[in-house]
Amino acid sequence: MPHIVPPHRHEQVAHDASAVSELLEVLWGRGQEAAPSGPLSPSQVRALFAIEQYEGANLRTLGDALGSRPSSVSRLCDRLEAVGLVDRQTSPTSRREVELRLTRRGHAALAEFRDFRAREVKAVLGRMAPDELAALAEGLTAFRRAAAGAAVPGATTADPAPRAADSA
User: Fold this and answer.
1) Which letter, b or e, does each residue of 69-108 get, where b requires 16 or more Cβ atoms within 10 Å of its Cβ?
2) For residues 128 and 123, what is the distance between their CA atoms, to the nearest angstrom?
3) Alpha carbons 132 and 139: distance in angstroms, whole number
4) Cβ-contact 61, 53 below 8 angstroms
5) Element holding 162 (H helix, E strand)
6) Residue 148 has pLDDT above 60, yes or no
7) What percent of the chain has pLDDT over 90?
8) Is-contact 86 106, C-beta < 8 A?
């Protein structure tokens, strides 16, 4: 039977989850600069995850997903396109709209990034007791289900649990 967290503890759990997120960022940052695909900033990685999630989306949808202004998103996409990770194509339904897609190199960079993250996390999980690992897995599954409701308004996706949310 799952543990019920009293409402006054939600703040502590949120604080603990934030602390874990910061630790994960440190773990993942260790090798990010040395990645064979080249160093990517955290905002570039978030953009790649969002573009993958909403393949073919426009700049406005990407801006909504990232919580960024259109001018910032446009510059970010300029940089990602310049290094060959993103391709912009005119929308077949509206010549005024631009669709964003990951290139083969963009997909490879994300796969490499995910593999690196998984190796780092696996090393930490290997130091946990089996019952702790089972509790963590159950909690993460519940968190992912709850986070799935935070999808970008107006965007469509077949995956009920957004990849961008997985990686943010």
Assistant:
1) eeeebeebbeebeeeebbbeeeeeeeeeeebbebeeebee
2) 10
3) 11
4) no
5) none
6) yes
7) 33
8) yes
pLDDT classification of 33: cutoffs 50, 70, 90: low
Contact present, 27 and 127 (Cβ < 8 Å): no
Closest residue by Cα to residue 28 from 41, 15, 18: 41
Structure tokens at 147: 């986070």
Q: Is 67 left (phi over 0), alpha (psi -120 to 50) or beta?
A: left
Sole residue written with tokens 């909690």: 139
Beta-carbon contacts of residue 161 (< 8 Å; ≥ 6 apart) = 144, 145, 147, 148
pLDDT, residue 168, reads: 36
Q: How many CA atoms does the CB half-sphere of 54 hold within 13 Å?
A: 24
What pLDDT sits at residue 5?
Answer: 62
pTM value?
0.69
Q: Is 32 exposed, middle or buried (0-12, 13-18, 19+ CB in 10 A)?
A: middle
Tokens of 54: 């909403």
Q: Calculate the CA 160 to chain-centre distance.
A: 14
Token reading at 45: 């990685």
